[in-house]
Specification:
Distance between the termini: 54 Å
CATH architecture of one domain: 7 Propeller
Strand order of the largest sheet: 1-8-7-6-5
Largest sheet: 5 strands, antiparallel
CATH superfamily of one domain: YVTN repeat-like/Quinoprotein amine dehydrogenase
CATH topology of one domain: Methylamine Dehydrogenase, Chain H
Bound molecules: heme D
CATH class of one domain: Mainly Beta
Radius of gyration: 22 Å
Number of helices: 6
Strand content: 35-45%
Structural class: mainly beta
Helix content: 10-25%
Amino acid sequence: MAALGMTLAAAALYAANCAVCHGPDRLGLSGPALLPENLERLKRPAAVKVIADGRMATRMQGFAGKLSPEEIRAIADWIYTSPALEPQWRMQEIRASRRSFAPARPDSDKPVFDADPLNLFIVVETGDHHATILDGDRFVPLARFPTHYALHGGPKFSPDGRYVYFGSRDGWVSKYDLWNLRMIAEVRAGINMRNIAVSSDGRWVMAANYLPHTLVALDARDLSPVKVIEVRDAKGESSRVSAVYDAAPRQGFVAALKDVKEIWEIPYGPVFGPVRTIETDDYLDDFFFDRGYHNLLGASRGAQTSEVVNLDVRRRIASIDLPGMPHLGSGITWDWNGRTVLATPNLRTGLISIIDTGTWKVMKQIKTLGPGFFLRSHENTPYAWADNFNSPYRDTMQLIDKRTLEVAKSVTPAPGKTAAHVEFTRDGRYALVSVWDMDGAIVVYDAKTLEEIKRLPMNKPSGKYNVYNKITRSDGTSH
Ligand code: DHE
């Protein structure tokens, strides 16, 4: 009875203080969703602190002056408790959430600025949930606008590079016109989303959800929902979707599933669907695709291996011993002595693994200062840039010589502050590095001399994406 009373009290406190921004059902309104799935990345003591003190650079105010420590703890407990009725997000909710934005003046069919539209960078600033459009010739911002809460995964582009699509962890998909520098439309495809992919023919946007267990296909023109695909294996077991990828040469999407031992392929051209499944020996996550998209490499959750699955013969063809938890999604390729090699950072070990994609054997483990998250290069530069994100040396980026497979140089853009995620200009001449701090920056380096060219203040710039490198699927960048 006492517990029931506490729950009712917490629910009342939530309704009186939080519901106006986070929604009476905790699905989010102007503030983010507050359901256990959406809070997985926030530890409970940190949530208590946010409720008490607020969150800098956002509209979240602190409640310490208004509520007692017990009341604040009760609200924190409440938001980590699943609602009695599982929240629904079906076609009707998705459709009702969609908004189109009318232009202030008629849209131009040419860029409204004189910068090279293919050398723009989209910078995602997760500190205050904004995006900046950066002229990649002059390194000057052209526009800055608010995004939905917690964008995750790289933004994706239409094949001509005119439109960019964003996905947020709270399920929102947005479409932005880079030529007219304005938002076109947005829709909420799920409650807790992982990422989005855009089909290589530009017709479809696919959203991968943890909550509910769905893949949602949207019409890329206006983001109207076309199909909600419930994700279940042959036995009817439902699954979260870890991520969805566009496999352009296959004219299909490929999805990684969290809770069932299957890989899904969803053809989109010329006809959409039906889903084709490949059974796997283990749960596979975090995919790397070879250049032709014939093979994928997925990290095996149960073992310390990564599995190579051939998508044509639809089965595993090799296993690779990779114990350091490879971050295969950040894997990049280059040509080395007549072979194509794949390099991947490892999230738990300070090693960059170099794998021969012909034999699927590990050729070398390059020792770095610590475990890293991202790896980037460009066809016109001899170095692959690696961070040391999960280590005491997180302020230093190391450059691996792609010819000798040795660490050759390093840069420390802001001592004491995390340096991570590099992207190159379309010609590979300049490298842009993020300083991951609320008081952060994008630091532009000459990729050859490593001379600092410019420093632009940014609010925790988590990633930046060059239009040309992305739409041409440069070997040096994730796809
Ligand atoms: Fe990511 C991309 C998965 C945590 C920042 N991340 C991706 C992709 C996957 C993935 C599958 C590729 C999809 C795409 O680009 O469309 N990320 C995961 C996880 O499973 C993990 C470890 C835990 C989680 O709960 O999601 C995780 N990721 C993070 C972070 O903590 C990071 C550092 C900060 C954040 O914003 O959440 C982060 N992930 C990123 C970024 C990309 C990304 C910036 C795009 C990289 C790119 O260059 O394309």
